Every structure is written in structure tokens, then in C-alpha cells.
User: What shape does this take?
Amino acid sequence: MSSDVIFQPLRLGSLTLKNRVLRSSLAGRFDNYDGSGTPVRINWDVKFARGGVGAIISSNAPVHRRGRLVPGFALIDRDDRIPFFRELGKRVHEYDCKYIVQLNHAGRHRDIGDLEFPKGLSSTDRPEPIHGFECERMTRPQIEETVDAFAQGARRAREAGLDGVEVAGGNGVLVTQFLSSAINDRDDEYGGSLENRARFALQVVRAIRVQVGRDFYVGFKISVDECMNEVFPWLRRGNTPADSVQICKWLEEAGVDAIHITAGAAFPHPRNPPGTMPLRDLVRTYDTIAASGRYTFRNYVAFRTWPFSSIFRWQWERPVRRVGAEGINLPESRAVKEAVSIPVLCGGGFQTASVVANAITSGACDGVTIARSLLANPNLVELWAQGYDRPPRPCTYVNKCLANFLEHPLACYEESRFDSHDEMMREALRVYETAEGR
Assistant: This one.
């Protein structure tokens, strides 16, 4: 199949991209603890812009200090953050690449504990089920404050000269915690029925539109199939594709320009990022998480002790064994695209040009978002343009990048993809070099 369709422009509301490939939210802990941005972050994003993607969706940018997923990511919670994002956008724009800020609030979902706020905020007061980070149920004033925080974050992105925002509404963060039937246990107007659970998300979108107007891109990322029981069998499944399709219809009515498809009401999740579970690497770095969280010792034992480790790995890798990693979310993407009139972006392990082209031409999506495969090959789009269907050294989906990012620079740590260990280390540390990370 011709890959020409990949290089056709993509219209997302008022925004036009040069091709159909976006780098998904992807970054390590490259910023300062206080949420201020660094030149390393700029080096990081410029590297992917140089590689040919049509747009970059930023790493999660918390709209409030209490919404940090993990320290070391640039916040967009105050006006004095604007100059950093302005410079970042300026550098990315030099490569004819658009920059979209992913507005996020982690809620109860954290990778490590927060020094300033030991408890997260959520739609519930039940601990997060993977690591057991504690939280408190949000009051109405806290909900109103958070809705405004999203709106002000979007205003700051526009004032910084960036090209749009994406509301993080999937993979277990705060918006997911309101949307999800597996998480939200409220008995007020924000809980119970699907319409009530969607109220918070729709308020966020409408508040953003008030701040940025109609001529600024606003996307929404959603876990269409939450599949929480794939993480641990005793958990409730959560929202089904039918539930999420209805939510997407409401989001379109509220003013969203595009829907970004992902899966799983937690992160990591067997469907995001799909692939194997590198337990040996995870055990080496899990001590960062094990310092806090109600269930972390249970996990640590399960990761390193046979037969629990084998059972955990078997359970985790079931979805990939059934359907494969590349394009794992295409059925859900197609269901949403058939129900809405706005563009649909799909994530899920893409790195083969013919697979991407077929996904677009068959009507499953309008464009794709890529994370790990670009981490493995930042010039993936250039390779496709040169005629490669798949890069010579493709991503192996072993997820060692995920297992290492809390303690080490985010990079590919699958040594079989490199000529030597030294070469792998040089690539991992290159982002700290001057001259745009070269």
C-alpha cells in the first residue's frame, strides 16, 4: 500500500498539520522539581520535530501543583511559565512542526509520592488500585477551581504562541477518574449516570473554549475501552466502547476539535503501552515507587518472586498475545470515527507505514499518534518518506523505556537495537548536550 496518505495535510479544527503523524505525550523527568522548564526539555522536543512529525503533543503539563503525576515535568499553572513555553514553541516551529500542550491533572494517579501534597484529589476517596496512592474526594469548590485551572492553562498556551491544547482524559488521570464507572463512586451530580460522570470533562472543555475562542485547537484524549480487569482480574472493567462513543458525541457538541484514542483507565496498562513486561528492569527501579503507596510492597514481591512474577507477566501480556501491539486500538478508533464528524487520532504501537496508511484509508482514523516507536527511531517519519515500510531497527515493544524512566533519562534501553552498550548510553544522554541535543 502506498504511504502517500501519511504525508497529506491533516486539518484539526483551525489547525493544519503537514502530515498525519503526531508524537504522543512522551518525556522523562527533564524539568525542575518546582515545575519550571529547562533547556533539556527543549532539546527533547526539538529532536522529534527535526525527525519530521507534523505535531508534538507535549508531555503532560499539570495545570495545578497538586496535579503532578511525577515531579520533574514542566507545569503550566502560572503566567510566569509562559516564556518557557513560548521559547519551546518557537524552537519546534523552526521545523514546520506544530506544538500542542497536553493539559493534565493526575488526581489520585501518581508514579511516586508528592512532597507537597501527600494525598491526591479524585472523584473518589478510594486509593489508586495499582500502587495504592491515597486521595481525597473532591469538593464542589475544588472541582470549580480545577475546571478553571484547565481553562487558564489553555489561555497560557495560546498566549505562548502555541498551536493548541489536548485535555488528558484517558489512562487513569483525573478526568478519567470522573468519567470511569470503575473509579467514580460519587452520589452527587458528578457521579452515577454516564451523563453525570461526563459532567466534569464537559465543563473543562467549555471553560477552555471561553478562554481561547473557537479558532484555537482543542483536542481530547480518551480511553475508549477501560479494561481495568486486565490489570487485576478483581477490578471492575469500567467504561465500554459504547459508553465512550456517547461521551465523544457530547465532547464534539461541547467544542472539541478532535478525539485522541487510547485505552485503559490506568497507566501503565496492558494496552498502553502494549508489549511485554520487563520485570527484571522494573525491579531495579521500583524502589522509587515503593517508598510510598499502600500496595507497593505487594507489587515488588509479585515482580521479583516466582511463581507470582510469571502469573503477573502472563496476565499483563494477554491483550498483546491476542491482537498484537501495533494498531491495538484501531477497532475502538473506528467505532468513534463512525459516530462523530470531527477527526479521530489513534495511538497504539505504530511503526509500519503500510499499517498506518491502511488505518487512514480504511476509515479507522484520520491520523496516528506515536510514542515509543519514535523514542526508538526519532526519524521514523523521514524513514517512511525514504521508502522504508518499517525502520531497520524497529521498536521491540519490550517496555524497558517505561521501566527505567523514573530513575534514568527516558530512552530506549533495549541493547539489542544498538551496536554496543556504549552506543546505547550515548543515545540516552544526547538530550543533555547543547546545540539542540545533537
About this structure: Residues 431 and 437 are 5 Å apart (CA to CA). The chain has a mean pLDDT of 92.
